[in-house]
Amino acid sequence: MLRLMGMPEIVAPEEVADVHIASILIMREREKRQKLINEMNFQRQKNLELEKFIQQLIITLKMTREIEEIEKSESDFVKIGAYSKRERAIKIKKYKLKLKKRRAFIRVSRNYKGRSLASKAKSRVRGRFAKVNQML
C-alpha cells in the first residue's frame, strides 16, 4: 500500500479480497462466541434452578422428618383447643411446609412500568383515583 501526501490509500485488489475475507472470518468468530455465551448463560440459569429445587427437597425432607419425630414421640394428651399437643404440632408443621412450597413456586415480577404509567395518567382528587364526573 502506498500513501502519498494526504491522498487516499492505493490498495491492490488482492489486499481488498484479503481484508474482506478477514472481516468475514472475524464476524463468524464473533457469532460463535456470542452463541457460546448465550449457551453458558442458559446453563447457568438451569443450574441455579436445580440448586433451588434441591434446597426445597432438603427442606421438605427435614420437615417430614420433624413431623415423623413428633408423631413417634408420645407426649401428653392435653388438649389445646380441639387437638392434642401432638396433633396440633403435626398440623402446624404441615401448614408451614405447605407455605414454604407455595412461596417457592410463586415468582414475583418487578416489571410494573405499564401499570405505573397508567396510574400516573389517571385523574385524582385528594390523592385518590377519581372518575371524570367526580372531578366536576
Description:
This is CCT domain-containing protein. It comes from Stentor coeruleus. This protein has a domain at 13-106. Helix 1 runs antiparallel to helix 2. The strands form two sheets. It has a two-stranded antiparallel ribbon. A two-stranded antiparallel sheet has the order 3-4. The longest helix is centred in the N-terminal third of the chain and has 60 residues, at 13-72. The model has no long low-confidence stretch (mean pLDDT 78). The chain contains four helices and four strands; from the N terminus they run αββααββα. With 136 residues, the protein is mainly alpha-helical. Strand 3 (124-125) and strand 4 (128-129) form a beta hairpin. The chain is 69% helix and 6% strand. It has helices at 13-72, 85-105, 113-121, 132-135; strands at residues 79-80, 83-84, 124-125, 128-129.
Mean pLDDT: 78
- Residue share in helix: 55-70%
**Element string (H = helix, E = strand):** HEEHHEEH
- Rg from alpha-carbon coordinates: 34 Å
Which outline best applies? flat
Distance between the termini: 79 Å
The low-confidence parts are none
Determine the structural class based on helices, strands and strand pairing.
mainly alpha
Number of strands: 4
Largest sheet: 2 strands, antiparallel
Helix tally equals 4
Protein name: CCT domain-containing protein
Organism: Stentor coeruleus
